[in-house]
Amino acid sequence: MSTFMIEPGARLANRYRLDEPVSETNGATFWKATDETLARLVAVWTFADGFPNTSAVIHAARATSRIADSRVTQVFDADDTAQPPYLVEEWVIGQSLTDLLSGGPLAPERAAGLIAEAAEALATAHETGLSHQFLTPNKLIWSVGGAVKVTGIGVDAALRGLPPEQTPDVAAVDAYGLGRLLYASLTGHWPESAHAPEHHATKYNLPAAPAADGILPPRQLRAEVPQRLDEIAGYAAAPAPEARGSLTTPRAIAHALSDAPRMAPIPVTQPAAANAPPPERGTSRTSGAFGAAPGRETRGASRGRASSAPDQSRDASRSPVLAKIAIAGAALLVLVGVVTGAWTLGSTMGGDDADPGQNADPQPGDGQSGSGDDPELETIELSDAEGFDPLGDGDEHSDNAGKAIDGDPDSRWKTEGYDGPSFGKLKEGVGLLVDLGDTAEVHEATLSLGEAGAADVQLLVGDDPEFEALQQKAEASGVSGEEDVKLSDPAEGRYVAIWFTSLPQDGEYRGTINEVELRGKT
Predict the structure, then answer these.
(1) Other CB atoms within 10 A of residue 189 CB
(2) Residue 243 CA neighbour count, 13 Å, CB half
(3) Quick check: 469 and 62 in contact, CB under 8 A?
(4) Which contiguous run of DSSP H or E holds residue 482?
(5) pLDDT tens column, 381-425
(6) Alpha-carbon distance 184 to 272, whole Å?
(7) Which are the contacts of 27, defined by CB distance < 8 A and separation ≥ 6?
(8) H/E stretch holding 76
(9) How far apart are CA 275 and CA 50, in angstroms?
(10) Which residue of 206, 213, 318, 446 has the fewest C-beta atoms within 10 A of its own C-beta?
(11) pLDDT tens, residue by residue, 269-291
């Protein structure tokens, strides 16, 4: 089936309804769609017969799904064997940087905070081996839930036939892209001359930056831009790599902007805002958080703005509220008195014949928790273990894997040694695959990881030992020694992979597991 023959209303996997096409790129079509199973909007890519990069896009999407940063667009589903092949991503509701700049440049603090978040997300992606390479104002979104989202990581490069993997040259490309986004945010101009051979400013509805022996620095366009931000934007957005100083990676830009105040949610005009999801977690730091910048609030509702009315009007408006609070308090006191009296009377009448267990607080060992909601968990017996290297040579010291489940904390399994914490950019991770012998409901794990240094690990669970069948259910960053990892939701499966995404240095870089204990229900 050709993508061009698919019409709105078509369904993929008996689940995803294609509502309307948004864009088309050489045989890859981007759709606004609905996940009918979960009743939510999603974004879907479909690929025409003969589209040359389908497998690369799906591979990049799967790699992107394992980036542990909520500022990166989530990937929900991908299938390159379906007809047509498809990719399902998060549909981000909010305003792109293009939208935010339609009313003029951002306040300097807001601009710095927004780009700092994007730089941190890109730095995390680079550390897991992925890049963007096509950063534009449309790829940076301030979501209706109050979070920064960077769309297109990995996927945008693969769509264009470029390898999405991070390299030093690609790191510089993404750093340059971040610098241009900072310049645009501070000035409301796109940092290229209108006379440039490839003039893209009009594509983003922005005027080209004024130029005189090169584009003018931000402070020459806006005097209120702080000197430090002027320097960062000027260096990072410099066309010549040698003029960018040390700002040649997203991590370097994130470090330069590390003290920028993180953005507080701003109103976003959205028809479906009443049904918007709760605010998303993931905007990193909260140091110096601030409200909406002056002059930008008018883009949405004004209820978050401080009132300029006289104090008397505020007092008058508060009076009915205070009265209601007083009445509610009095009613609550009466209710407490009635309940207390009834309990006392019942206790007196019950005497020695009353059930001693009735109304009694749970005691240790009585099978109840303090909340009454915690499940009773048992230690799951582990049947077998092997080194797990599905993205490499297929072997990861499997001969020693049993030492991680033998009950002896002094024995251990280790990964192979690597040249860096990210596996020398050769793969996305390695791990230990544990066979439970039968399907069990896994709730939590205790991992003894050795003392070599901090590692990043994930727990993958599934009924099939193939990597594609395992789903990430928990993660822990910067951990060593004994670490308790609790799954956000219980997961059923026969296989659990302890998956290293970043290795500590132990001579070479390698992961260590002395012992694995899983708890749940069998």
Answers:
(1) 21
(2) 12
(3) no
(4) strand 482-502
(5) 999 999 999 887 667 888 889 999 999 888 999 998 887 788 766
(6) 29
(7) 3, 47, 48, 50, 51
(8) strand 75-79
(9) 39
(10) 213
(11) 333 333 434 434 333 333 333 33
State the Cα angle at 400 between 394 and 402, rounded to 5°.
Answer: 105
3-state secondary structure of 468: helix
Q: Would you say 422 and 430 are in contact if contact means Cβ atoms under 8 Å apart?
A: no
Do 223 and 229 touch, CB atoms closer than 8 A? no
What single-letter DSSP state applies at residue 263?
Answer: B
Tokens found for residue 87: 């990719």
The pTM of the whole model exceeds 0.70:
no
Q: Residue 147: its pLDDT value, please?
A: 87
Per-residue pLDDT of 94-104, as tens digits, reads: 999 999 999 99
Which amino acid is residue 67, in one-letter code?
I
In a 10 Å sphere around its CB, with 0-12 CB exposed, 13-18 middle and 19+ buried, how is residue 275 labelled?
A: exposed
Q: What is the mean pLDDT of residues 349-354?
A: 38
Mapping DSSP onto H, E and C, the string for 376-400 reads CCEECCCCEEEEECCCCCCCCCHHH
Contact between residue 225 and residue 186 where contact means Cβ atoms under 8 Å apart: yes
Hey, what's the torsion of the CAs at 223, 226, 232, 235, to 10 degrees?
30
Measured in degrees and rounded to the nearest 5, phi and psi for residue 401 equal -65, -35
Question: Residue 202 burial by CB count (10 A; 0-12/13-18/19+): exposed, middle or buried?
Answer: exposed
- CA–CA separation, 67 vs 176, rounded Å? 22
Place of tokens 């192979």: 416
Give the integer Cα–Cα distance in Å for 476 and 513: 14
